[in-house]
Amino acid sequence: MSTAAINGITIGYDDEGDHGTDDVLVLVHGHPFDRSMWRPQVEHARSLGWRVIAADLRGYGESTVVPGVTPLSTFAEDIVGLADHLGVERFVLGGLSMGGQIVLECVRQFPGRIRGLVLADTFAQAETPEGRGSRNDMADRLLREGMAGYAAEVLWKMVAPHNTEAAEHVSRMMRAAPPDGAAAALRGRAQRPDYTPVLGKVTVPTLVVVGSHDEFTPVTDARYLHDRIPGSTLVVLDGAAHLPNLERPAEFGAALETLLAALR
Question: Which residue ranges does UniProt annotate as crossing the membrane (predicted)?
Fold first, then answer.
């Protein structure tokens, strides 16, 4: 594990693989997780000769917790700030759930930095009034009660039933998430814009992945992205829920490998 001072905070990150290559993959985790959710993909991409960077977002894991409100734009600026710190100009960028929305914010702000995209179990539309209320209410609850109750309630929506190994990993990440950081991210997501106008401007190879049993961002949301991103590829992983990269790592890895091979 390494740390870097970026935008006034400390970011914990892993930077693995060949540092002499221009083939760089940056992975952005979702809420309320940390960079360990990408371990299977880090190992797989590294074995293919890629340099792979996975960081803890501010408020999560080993990065600085910043209470209040963290907009998606701030997360995106941290990601690119870390790339600058590591001397990486262009990279393939992947994210899951909230991480996918941060990826879309990076596309909006920094399109010239991106060689390819992975959008997993995420969606582009703006938050609804009902969703804003729900996210702010949940932020209040996490600050009041901590993460344990929420983690227990949503575990079997995050991961399809009977996948006990993935479920144990996901449960550990959720319970370990700092409530102040998770609440700040929820309040920031409640303010997110509609990224639909960004989708048609994407000009890089794009992989859209979703679990067939995802209740948070169902297949219809993935098709929304796929239909609007020119030339994108859609992969639906059967039997997986919201974290197919952990539930179906071999199948997720095969889809990722196809994208990376096309970019070399």
Answer: none
If we measure between CA atoms, which residue out of 99, 97, 50 comes closest to residue 78?
99
b vs e for 201-211, b when ≥16 Cβ sit within 10 Å of the residue's Cβ?
Answer: ebebbbbbbbb
The DSSP-derived string for 35-100 is: GGGGHHHHHHHHHTT-EEEEEPPTTSTTSPP--S---HHHHHHHHHHHHHHTT--SEEEEEETHHH
Give the count of beta carbons closer than 10 Å to the beta carbon of residue 20. Answer: 6
Q: What's the CA gap between 162 and 156, in Å, rounded?
A: 9
Write the DSSP assignment of 4-22 as a string of letters: EEETTEEEEEEEES-TT-S
Q: What is the pLDDT of residue 19?
A: 95
The DSSP output letter for 111 is G
Are 88 and 113 a contacting pair, CB within 8 Å? no
Cα Dmax for the chain:
48
Asked whether the beta carbons of 65 and 49 are under 8 A apart, the reply is no
- Joined together, the tokens standing for residue 256 give 């990722």
Spatial contact of 25 and 92, defined as CB atoms under 8 Å apart: yes
In DSSP terms, which residues pair with 253 in a beta bridge? none
Alpha carbons 244 and 137: distance in angstroms, whole number: 28
Mean pLDDT (whole number) for 5-26: 97
Mean pLDDT of 223-239: 98
Name the one residue in this structure whose structure tokens are 């002499």: 20
Q: pLDDT by residue (tens digit) across 121-177?
A: 999 999 999 999 999 999 999 999 999 999 999 999 999 998 999 999 999 999 999
Q: Among all chains, which residue has been given the structure tokens 């929420």?
A: 150
DSSP state of 126: P
Query: Strand 9-16 and strand 2-6: pairing?
Result: antiparallel
Average pLDDT over residues 82-106: 98
